[in-house]
Amino acid sequence: MTQPRRVFVSHTSELARYPSNGASWVDAATRAVIRVGDVPQELRLFAAVDVPPVSLIRQSVLESDVFVAIVGFRYGSVVPGDGRSYVEFEFDMATEAGISRLVILLNDEVVGPRDFFADDEHGNRQMQFRERLLRGSGLTVVRVSSPDQLETALFQALASLSLKQKRPDLSSVVLLGTRSSIDFCMALTQHLSGTAVTRIWPLGASDESGMSRSRLLLAWLRDAELGVVALGQDEGPPHSELSRTNLSPSAWYEIGLAGGVLGLGNVEIIASDSLVLPQSVGQPTLVAHADGLTPGLARSAAEALGPRLRVGESKRQISSSPARYTCFLSYAQADTDFVDQLYVDLQDSGITCWLDRERVSAGQRWRDEIQRGLGRSDKVLLILSDAAARSRWVEMESMQAIGLEKAQSRQVLIPIRIDSGVLSDPPAWVASLASDRQFADFENWRDETAYQRSLRRLVRDITVSFASDTLQVP
User: Fold this and answer.
1) Considering only CA atoms, which of 55, 60, 303, 30 is closest in space to residue 197?
2) Which residue, among 398, 393, 386, 399, has the nearest Cα to 427 in the 3D structure?
3) Which of 209-223, 274-288, 337-351, 418-432 is least confident?
4) Distance between CA 455 and CA 465 in Å, rounded?
5) Fold exhibited by the domain 325-455
6) Please, which of 5, 58, 223, 272 could form a disulfide with 38 given CB 3.0 to 4.6 Å?
7) Fold type of domain 6-160
8) Which stretch of 188-197, 222-231, 388-397 has the lowest confidence by average pLDDT?
9) 185-194, 244-253, 417-426 — most confident range
10) Contact, 86 vs 60, CB < 8 A?
11) 53 Cα distance to chain centroid
């Protein structure tokens, strides 16, 4: 089985900050990697994590399939006890490991502020490194003068490499770790080697980059079969509302995104028993220990995860069977235009949807298939309009979702209002919903700006709801 390559992007810090009026050089590289169908490895994700960077670098570089160096005019920080810059250190490590390397060199036509070019301490070292890459590396070096040129050049270089390297047909796992559990995640990665390809995602870490973190995480999750959330002693959910948790809002969002993309049944929780222990929906908490998530517990966690990680089976086989969906779309046929647009945009955001026209094949009993779709979906998006309010099928699907909420003690139904008239003289069942629920407002959905604003809110509401489900307190 051919899997997406893991592409390590090496760069100095200023290349992630400039240009300040648009996508940075590193953003452009990340876009190229995602466009070609590969998965970026980018250590900016760990900016707020207190872990020795050399340990992260070694793990990330050696587990990558392609190494990309973006080389500007500054040498950058030097590795403690080594003397080389981090970029040169990473390049040499990739060379010694025999990893395919691509070098993008910024040329003399680049414009920018002084601190983009000036390196008073190590400027001569950078000149020597650039000359080494041009003359002594044995590689083809591509010169660029803008982020757009970089994106095009890297996309073409990745696409023109020989067929994607084939890795062992292993499961792919994303480890979502809080600050205090990163050491545990790194140890777990070692114990899962040979069984799974793992990536560590630091929950709620610094979001200084121009490239949206959610876009990067989405690329990782789409390539994964299983998500594992590791919560340290100081980071569990409280007994009450979301706003009181020690997890940051962005961490909740990222946990919810994992649940939305992978399905709640494919997200496991590992936590210390000094917390009010969370419980993933449909899956047990894997490890609980009074000492917290110490690296010594990683072996036990790997053994607990073992049955979920079957070597030699494809992503399609490992994923929950029958297939689960994030959201079921309940609507009236009169609202097809809106539903089609919403379906495409939610799918692009990583939220898989069950839509009757997409899931019911010719010859199938459509009402039976709709009932199966409801049963396989974690949320029900109720598209409310005048036509929907009068539909007995929409009413029935709404009542079924409310029944699931009562049985499972979690939010299932998310109502969406797409016209103003639906609440002017509503039938009893709609009036009952309006009395105790906030409706997502898409009344002005034909206006692109208003629609996009409402879509962003809806995606965040869905993912935060998934995070609440995933970390449901028993």
Assistant:
1) 60
2) 386
3) 274-288
4) 15
5) Rossmann fold (3.40.50)
6) 5
7) Rossmann fold (3.40.50)
8) 188-197
9) 417-426
10) no
11) 22
Distance (Å, whole) CA 38 – CA 21: 27
184: three-class secondary structure by DSSP: helix
Helix (H, G, I), strand (E, B) or coil at 232: coil
Query: pLDDT tens digits, residue range 267-278?
Result: 888 876 544 433
Third-level CATH fold of 171-318: Rossmann fold (3.40.50)
DSSP state of 279: B
Residue in this structure with the two tokens 């950058």, named with its chain if needed: 76
- The 8-class DSSP code of residue 466 comes to H
* CA-to-CA dists, residue 451 to 334, 337, 442, angstroms: 19, 13, 7
**Higher per-residue confidence, 473 vs 415:** 415
Q: pLDDT over 90 for what percent of the chain?
A: 20
Cα separations (Å) of 256 from 93, 127, 349? 35, 45, 12
Of 393, 410, 266, give the one whose Cα is nearest residue 329: 393
Domain 171-318 in the same topology as domain 6-160:
yes
Interatomic CA distance for residues 167 and 148, integer angstroms? 31
Question: From CA 312, how far away is CA 191, in angstroms rounded?
Answer: 18
Q: How confident is the model at residue 222 (pLDDT cuts 50, 70, 90)?
A: confident
CA distance 383 to 55: 49
Cα gap 273→232, rounded to integer Å: 10
Domain boundaries, the chain: 6-160, 171-318, 325-455
User: How is residue 248 written in tokens?
Assistant: 């940051």
Question: What would the two tokens of residue 4 be?
Answer: 């997406």
Q: Which residues are registered as beta bridge partners of 67?
A: 8, 101
Question: Hey, what are 438's tokens?
Answer: 């906030």
